[in-house]
Amino acid sequence: MQIQPRQQLLDIWRATARLSYVDGSWRFGGRDGANSISDAEQLLCLMAPATEIPIFRLDNPDAANRDVLDALGALGDDIQVPQRLLEALTAYLKRYTAPDGTPSFAGGTYFRPELEGEEVKTAQQELDVVDSFAVSVTLMLAVVGFTRILRQVVTRPRLLDQVDELEERANQRLTAAMVGLLRSFSVNVFSADEPYGRELIRTVNQERRPSRQVVDELREALREINARLRDDVTIGSGAAEGSELDLPNRLFECGWSWGLVTDAPEIETSADIGAQRPGLAQNAPYLYFTTVALEAIQALSSERTRLLGLLDEAQLKLAQALQLRFELTRSYWATVATFGSGRWPLEDLPWRTTDGVEFDYFSLLVSGMVVRNMVAVRASGADLARVAGVLDELANRSRITRRPTPREPALNVHHPGLCFPLEGSENVGGTRLGWTVADISPLLLRRTLNLAGLLSDGAARSRLLDLSDDLWRHLQQRVILDGTARGVWDQPAGAFPQVDARFAEPSWYYTKRVVDCLVTAARVINEPPVRSELLARVAAELLNEAAHLYDRERLNGSTYSGQTLREELTRIGVELERARTVHRERPGVAVAVTEDVLRRLDRLSAARRADSGLS
Fold it and tell me: Per-residue pLDDT for 560 more than 80?
C-alpha cells in the first residue's frame, strides 16, 4: 500500500489548523458556508483521527506524540491544543442550539433548489436532515470520549467546568440526534403491481423468470425481516406500516428518509432534548441517507463506545432501537442485492432504485451494505471477491482508473455531483429542495480498503490494494495546491482538466471524507497480516526439520565443546522457539527465521563432521 496515513493526516492537520484558527479564535465555514453539517465535518477532520488512531490522541498532552502536536502548532503549544479544541467544540454546540435549548440539525447551505435558479426559503434551510443527525452522532461520541479522558488530566477548576459543560451539551445533542434518526426511519410498502414493485422486481429478476415466481421467492427471502419489522419496530417512524406488510402481494423497502418522516411520532425519553419538531419528509428510504445513518449507528456499538461507557441509560435504550433498524436495513439491502442464483442484482450496474433512477453511485452505496452483512454472516471469500469485482468496475466506469474523454458524462458524478430531490421539502413553502453528493472517489477508496482488510486470499487482497493505490493517486491530484486552502480538498480540475471550475475555499465535506479514508487505511495497516495457509504448512515442515536437526546437534556434540559453540546452540534454540511462537499468526516470519536456523545448523554439522575426519 502506497498510502502513508500518518504523514498524510499530519499534513491535513497542519492545513486544517491554519485555516480554522485565525486571529485567536476558531473560524467556521468553507466553500459551502457554515452549517451544522459542514462545521461538524471541519471539526471531525481533527477529532476523527484523534479518536480512532491511538498515536493521534489529543486528550492527554503528556502522552501525545511530538509530531502530532507540532502539526497543530497553529492552535498553540502542548497545553493550549486541547484547550482550543475544547473552546471550538463548545462554540459549535452553542451555535447549533436554538434559544429554547433544542439542538438544531438544519441542512442550511447544503440544501440546493432542485431546479437551478430557484430560491431556497429560510424556513427550508432550517429543516432537519439525516446527514446532520448522523454526523452529530459521530462527532458527539468523539467529544464525550475526549472529555472523559481530558477530565483525568485537568486540574484547574475553570477548565474542569468547561469540560463538564461541553460533555453535558454533547450528551444532549447526541441524544437528540439519536431520536432524530429514530424518527427518520422509513418502511415503504407497495404492491408488486405498482411502479415501485415493478422496478424492484426488474432489479432482482436477473434470470428473467416469471414475475409472480420472483415475487413469491423474494417475499420468502425477506420473511424474517418482514416479521421483525411488524413485531419489533414499535417506536419512532416505520412502526405504523407494519400492519400492511402481511397483506398478500406486498413488497417493501426500508432505510432512512432524508429527514423527519411525515407524521413521525415523538419519542418518549427521560433526557431533556427540547422540542421534537414535526416531520414532513417522504416516507421512503433514500440510499445516501440510509448509508450515512448506518455508519453513525455502527459507531454507537463500536468497541470504543462500549469500553469507555460513552452512552448513558437513556441513550442505551435508543441505541438498542437503532441497532434493530441497523440490522434489518443491512439485511434487507444485502438480500435484495444478492438475490437469485446467477448474477447478482448488485453486479448489474448501475443500481436502479424503485423510483426508476439509476446511478453507479447507488451501486457503491449498496455494496457497502452488502459487505457489512457479509461480515455479520461470515460470508465466504468468494462472495467478498465478487464485491471486489464490482468496486473495480465502478472505478473504471467513473473514470477514476480509466482515462476520460472530452465532455465525458461520467465526470458529472465528480463535479458538480449528483443532485436528487428531497420529496416533501416544498411543504413549508418554496421550491422542492435537492441534495448534492460528489464523494464517489473517497467513498470508493474507503470501501476498497475496508474490503481489502476482510479478504484472506493474498492475491485478491493484493489486487484491491493496487486499486486503492490508484484511487489514492487520483485523490492526491485533487488537493488544492495554492492559496490559503492549500493542503486540503477539493480541486476536481486537478484530476479532470475538462472541469472548468477552480476553487480557492476548502470543502470540509470532501476533506472529511478523505480523512475517513486515511483513518481506514491506518486501521487496515494496524491489523495482523493475512495468514497464508500455504506458508503456514511450509513453516510447520521447516520447523519439524529444524527441531530435529537441533536436537541431533545437542545429542552428538561433545560435552567439552567450546564456549562459542555452546553459545551458538543457545542462540539457535532461542530463534527456534521464536519461530514456533509466531508460525501460526505470521508464517512468513517463521519461514524466514527457520531458514536462518537451518543454515546455522548446517554449518555446525559440517564443522563437526570435518573435526571428526568425515567428508
Answer: no
- Cα torsion 232, 233, 234, 238 to 10°: value is -160
Bridge partners (DSSP) of residue 418 are: 437
Alpha carbon distances (Å) from 176 to 59, 97, 181, 299, 336: 25, 11, 9, 16, 32
**Helix and strand tally (H, E) in the chain?**
21, 9
Residue 603 has pLDDT above 60, yes or no: yes
Whose CA is closest to 131, among 15, 8, 233, 32? 32
330: Cβ–Cβ under 8 A, 6 or more apart, which residues? 294, 369, 372, 373, 376
Close Cβ partners of 256 (under 8 Å, ≥ 6 residues apart): 130, 181, 184, 185, 186, 285, 286, 289, 290, 292, 293, 329
Hey, what's the cell of 85? 479544541
Alpha-carbon distance of 30 to 300, in angstroms, equals 28
φ, ψ at 252 (rounded to 5°):
-160, 170
CA–CA dist 379, 377 (Å, integer): 6
DSSP string, 236-270: STTSGGGGGTTSTTEEEEEEE-SSSBTTPPPPP-S
Contact 358, 352 (CB under 8 A): yes
Given this model, what pLDDT does residue 410 score?
83
Report whether pLDDT(135) > 60.
Answer: yes
pLDDT confidence of residue 613:
57
Instruction: Please state, rounded to an integer, the average pLDDT across all residues of the chain.
Output: 91
Beta bridge partners of residue 433, listed in sequence order: 113, 422
What's the confidence (pLDDT) of residue 187? 94
Three-state SS for 418?
strand
Cα–Cα distance, 8 to 476 (Å, whole number): 10
Residue range 259-270: mean pLDDT, rounded = 92
Would you say how long the chain is, in residues? 615
486: number of Cβ within 10 Å = 15
Q: Which residues are CB-neighbours of 214 under 8 A, at least 6 positions away? A: 201, 204, 205
pLDDT value of position 458: 77
Give the sign of the dihedral formed by CA 596, CA 600, CA 602, CA 603.
positive
Percent of residues, the chain, with pLDDT higher than 90:
70
CA-to-CA distance for 614 and 450, rounded, in angstroms? 59
- Total Cβ atoms within 10 A of residue 251: 24
Is the per-residue pLDDT at 438 higher than 60? yes
pLDDT of residue 528 exceeding 80:
no
Task: Residue 346: name the closest of 356, 354, 355, 337 by CA.
Answer: 337
Is residue 357 exposed (0-12), middle (13-18) or buried (19+ Cβ within 10 Å)?
middle
Dist CA 38 CA 28 (whole Å): 8
The CB density around residue 527, as the number of other CB atoms within 10 Å, is 9
Residues near 354 by beta carbon (within 8 Å), at least 6 away in sequence: 188, 190, 195, 196, 197, 199, 200, 253, 284
Which is nearest to 308 in space by CA: 51, 41, 135?
Answer: 51
Rounded mean pLDDT of 330-337? 96
